[in-house]
Structures are given as structure tokens and as C-alpha cells.
Write a structure and sequence with these properties.
The complex is a heterodimer. Chain A is 0% helix and 53% strand. Chain A has strands at residues 4-5, 10-14, 19-21, 24-25, 32-39, 46-52, 59-61, 64-69, 74-79, 88-96, 101-103, 107-112. In chain A, strands 2, 5, 6, 10, 11 and 12 form a 6-stranded mixed beta sheet that branches. Chain B contains no helices and 11 strands. In chain B, the strands form 2 sheets. In chain B, strands 2, 4, 5, 6, 9, 10 and 11 form a 7-stranded mixed beta sheet that branches. In chain B, strands 1-3-8-7 form a 4-stranded antiparallel beta sheet, with no helix packed on it. Classes of the chains: A mainly beta, B mainly beta. Chain A binds chain B through residues 33, 35, 37, 43-45, 47, 50, 52, 91, 95-106, and chain B through 31, 33, 35, 41-43, 45, 48, 50, 55-56, 89, 91, 93, 97, 101-107, 109-110.
Chain lengths: 113, 116
Amino acid sequence: AQKVTQAQTEISVVEKEDVTLDCVYETRDTTYYLFWYKQPPSGELVFLIRRNSFDEQNEISGRYSWNFQKSTSSFNFTITASQVVDSAVYFCARRNRDDKIIFGKGTRLHILP
Amino acid sequence: DAGVIQSPRHEVTEMGQEVTLRCKPISGHNSLFWYRQTMMRGLELLIYFNNNVPIDDSGMPEDRFSAKMPNASFSTLKIQPSEPRDSAVYFCASSPGGNSYNSPLHFGNGTRLTVT
């Protein structure tokens, strides 16, 4: 199966530290899309970012940044100057042209005050 | 836009009972997905529809699970008979679909199912 692997099950950092969440994916397709979602304690799933396989530019949005490296099949997510409100489970996902979206098992992030 | 609407938000039922979960996708979205979330298995894709047609139901655990999409604005996921191991949060999601497979999924708030 073409998996999405988030090797870090749980991470705890102190507020204001930077933290990087890893995501490694498998795919046989040349065209695919990668996503990150956030699931706060309230339980909803919130879309954060999308990246297509032809665009390897990194992206920054406020304190969030994403590093896509096709050579290593990785799409890592960094939170700079973390805040308590960043505490959540973060999911990486891959979507191929067949429309299925496969999620990683998530990384639970604890930001300690 | 009201977003994806799921009902009920919580369901508690006894083993052996039939459970029906409901979903209204975002208007204009052609793809609809049902996911199940548990601590052990994370987010699992159960089934998805394109233009009301089931495309892939390989994630449906067993024959006790069935899903329908009678029209573009409504889908159900039914479990009959329910078992305690079906306890989970069930999410419905929609996206524009078709050639818009670069579109993110828009999730409902989920239904938390507890089978006792």
C-alpha cells in the first residue's frame, strides 16, 4: 500500500520553541497532492495547506512553514515560536489522481506553557 | 456556506442495534468521503463517492457496514448490527471532485459513536 508515515507519534515542546513535524509518503504516481490538517482538542479537522507534486517551493504562512522535498518524499511542517494554541493532532495526507486521500496516523503536539 | 453537516453529533447505542449516520456535503461538491477515526488505527477511509456513485468501498470493514448516496446532497452510513468495536468518530468530507483532485477535503464535525 502507498502509505503516509508520520513517525512522530507525540511531541512535547515548551512554548516559544520551534518544532518540526515529519511526513514521508509513498506513491507511484507522478502527479499527486499533499496536505496538512490540524485537529484541535475540539475534534474538527482543519485544512492548513496543499502542495502539488510539481511545486517544490517551500511555503511560509505566519509562524507555519512547509518544506517539500520530492527527492526524499518528505513534506515536513515547522511551527516557529510555538504557542499553546498550536496544541493539536496534525495529519499529513496524500491525494492521487484516483481521488483517494490517504492520511498518516497523525502527530500529537503538546505545547507546554 | 454551511459547510459539511453531519448528524447526529453523538450516538450511543446498544450492541446489535442499527445505527445510521447522516451527511450533507457542501453544495456543488461532487466527491464525498466517509472516514472513521480511532486511537489505534487513526483516520481510515471507508468509502468514497463521485457524482453519487460509490467508487471505492474497499475500506468498509465488513458487510455490517453500508453506505448510500441517493442524491448529491445527502449520504448515509449504516451499521447493522452494531458492535462495541465500531465505537469511533465517523467523519464525512466533501470536495469538488472531478478534475479538482487538488482540492482539500472539507470535513464535517464528525459523529462520535459509542456502542455498549
